[in-house]
């Protein structure tokens, strides 16, 4: 016996409202499992509410389902890192290779200009240090909101933060910090102006290409990472 559309929505609401689940992929997977289990019980003449309660017990209750979501997240985040790496490699193939070449050439020209014609480099790195410190507020706030949104109701007023956003925020910040520190180390290393400019061009080109990959990742996998819950 098939469930009705209203019953389908009731199952989804159980996951988002009662269990306070966040990950859309996990919710879809669990919804499919619940539908199969409930429809099997409906064929045994159980009413829907009874079949729903029995299915919840079969899965260990709310606490067990929430724990399953945390386990799902660990594997899911590792998978997203592999997805990001695949997108990064794709920047050096096909039509994207032309865009990569143009971006790299523009950054190389900019680094050469800054290296030969900009003398007050220290001020630039003071600004960069301030930028890193200011930008750190995003990852600093993202993680506790991600971890606490299930338990603190007002954090879910506008929606929820899913694993994709956490991966993107931390990868973006890590790449930026690594690039900035590497560039600063080059400046202090005693390389010639030409060598320093070219090495900086490599660093910032890689960062820019990585940012393009992150934008593509966001467009492809985060189109619906915010959703409201009642």
What descriptive keywords fit this protein?
disordered C terminus, 9 helices, mainly alpha, 230 residues
Word description of this protein:
- The chain is mainly α and 230 residues long.
- It folds into two domains: 5-67; 91-221, no CATH class.
- The chain has nine helices and no strands.
- Helix 2 (24-42) crosses helix 3 (48-58) and helix 7 runs antiparallel to helix 8 (163-187).
- The protein is elongated.
- It starts with a helix and ends in a 9-residue tail after the last helix.
Radius of gyration: 24 Å
Enumerate how many helices there are, as a single number. 9
Largest β-sheet summary: none
**Regions with little confidence, pLDDT below 50 for 5+ residues:** 225-230
Query: What's the rounded overall pLDDT mean?
Result: 86
Question: Helix coverage percent of residues?
Answer: over 70%
Quick take:
Helix content is 77%, strand content 0%. The chain has 230 residues and is mainly α. Helix 1 (5-18) packs across helix 2, helix 4 (61-90) packs across helix 9 and helix 6 runs antiparallel to helix 8.
List the helices and strands and how they pair.
Blueprint: H1 5-18, H2 24-42, H3 48-58, H4 61-90, H5 96-117, H6 121-135, H7 137-148, H8 163-187, H9 193-221
Helix pairs in contact: 1-2, 2-3, 4-9, 5-9, 6-8, 7-8, 8-9
């Amino acid at each position: 016996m098939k469930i009705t559309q209203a019953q389908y929505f009731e199952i989804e609401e159980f996951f988002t409202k009662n269990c306070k689940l966040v990950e859309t992929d996990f919710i879809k997977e669990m919804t499919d499992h619940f539908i199969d289990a409930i429809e099997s019980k409906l064929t045994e003449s159980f009413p829907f509410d009874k079949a729903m309660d029995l299915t919840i017990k079969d899965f260990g209750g709310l606490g067990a389902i929430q724990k399953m979501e945390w386990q799902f997240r660990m594997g899911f985040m590792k998978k997203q890192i592999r997805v990001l790496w695949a997108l990064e490699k794709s920047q050096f193939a096909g039509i994207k290779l032309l865009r990569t070449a143009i971006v790299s050439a523009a950054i190389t020209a900019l680094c050469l200009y800054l290296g030969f014609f900009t003398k007050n480099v220290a001020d630039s790195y003071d600004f960069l240090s301030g930028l890193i410190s200011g930008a750190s507020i995003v990852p600093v706030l993202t993680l506790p909101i991600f971890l606490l949104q299930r338990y603190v109701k007002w954090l879910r007023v506008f929606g929820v933060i899913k694993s994709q956003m956490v991966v993107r925020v931390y990868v973006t910040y890590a790449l930026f910090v690594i690039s900035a520190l590497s560039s600063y180390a080059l400046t202090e290393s005693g390389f010639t102006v030409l060598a320093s400019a070219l090495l900086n061009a490599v660093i910032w080109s890689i960062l820019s290409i990585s940012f393009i990959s992150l934008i593509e990742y966001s467009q492809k996998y985060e189109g619906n990472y915010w959703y409201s819950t009642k």
